[in-house]
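request received
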Amino acid sequence: MQTGFRQQSLWPVKISSVEEISPGAFLLSFPRNFSFSAGQVLKIALGEKEVPRMYSICSGENDPEITILFNVKPEGSLTPQLSHCKPGDTLFISLPLGSFTGDDQPAWLIATGTGLAPFYSMLRSGLVNGKQLIHGVRYLNQFYFEYELTRMLGQRYIKCCSAEHHDKVFAGRVTDYLRQLVELPSGIKYYLCGNGLMVVEVRDLLIERGVPFNNIISEIYF
Amino acid sequence: MRGILMKQPLFGKTLEELKVVVSHLGLPGFTAGQIAGWLYNKQVGTFDEMTNLSKKARFLLNEQFSMGVSQPVKVQVSSDGTKKYLFGTESGKFIETAMIPEEERITVCVSSQVGCKMGCLFCMTGKQGFQGQLSAGEIVNQIRSIEEAGQISNVVYMGMGEPFDNLPEVLKSLEILTASWGYAMSPRRITVSTIGIIPGMITFLEQSEAHLAVSLHTPFDEERKMLMPVQVAYPIGEVVREIRKWDFSHQRRVSFEYIVFGDLNDSERHIRELARLLNGLSCRINLIRFHPIPGTPLQAASDESLYRFKERLNEKGILTTIRASRGQDIYAACGLLSTRELLKKEQQ
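response:
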């Protein structure tokens, strides 16, 4: 019998809350009884035998609860069901895994949509020094944790919105924002998180603007 | 406004699925085997050509199903005989299929997705983003609808997309290619290539006997993260650890694909780490020349470096070969041609 990766155990946890924080975007929480590094992911399934999906941990390393930020994908196999979970329901999770983890060095964190989750985790874990966050969304109500991020980062929190306008928000996509900058800092790391196309477009743009490719670290949702 | 009801395609269904179809149509159970024979063995283009089916059966199939086969929209032929076929998809995008003739075999390189999610730094397909999954029928159609259909000796899943990100349809396509009621190809003539999605790889190893190829490109975690974002979730060390649990010492093979980039992954340090990573594993490394894509910061290694790298790995006891570059004059590297067509279409 194979005792491989898939057989690595998932164990049950009791959901403590499921909250819709923006239309179609949910924050699911359960008690934390393990340590992790900000930026890591968990495998999650609703049944022990089901094929799990991976989600970035959104909470900080010292928070009492683990939170997961997700968008409901109507055609998805897990998120529609997750959104209907209630406190006390059981969820099956893996140990934290992945190496998309930050450090205390200066860096730009660039995300779209729920790709914000690993960066929010890093920032909540205290990795704030020298960090600049650029978050791209379609609608203004998708700037999750806006108040807290503004408080933590001030002017180093850049909001980009492609479909709606607001005087404190850059009008356009994150690539539009990056393109209009006169200069990009060199010698720092750039962390990208989002769908494959966003990561490829931002990475190409950064490289075109002189950022060495080995300073760019990406996590792609798949 | 009246909705248009799309007929379901029959090509790409497994024998089990065809049995369900004939049962729903109220036809005798043996009809499923007859249909499979027409679809995958005799390769007819219409239901009316399925002459051993009853008139009622042909009428019902015509009424409720489409054949589900399509011809390439474009073919490019290289001076070395390699061909690149471009197939259109329902969504108006393109997928690529390469046919590579060699002395004693014809290899077809099929796509498993439209575009790709994985965003590898050296890959052109990723620049299109992910446009959708291919059905088993659309995968097998790339073998059925090219000029060389019927002469194909080998199939490699190394075209556009990550096969294990579309595992159910890839497994179905493998069943159709290898089953006695399908194309009856030996699984030893089929290789499926992955960037290392471990859960999908395990299911594939359990359910198929085809060969496995893994895109490795560097043995070092931090370097691989820059080249292949998948590394943050599925590190190559864990991929190899999983592979070690399977028997590749007999007929089934595992190979590692390694694009050699100049001044990046072709050093003595890489050779030592590759030898350590693959120590004791019955495998082969295929070295691949890099053909730069637009805007890439990566460069090709020199031939001298490539041959030295190969010799040094062989000296370390790892069977290493250099893959011949084919079809360079027709953009045979996957993603280049379809991206051009996509851009052309968008500009129009």
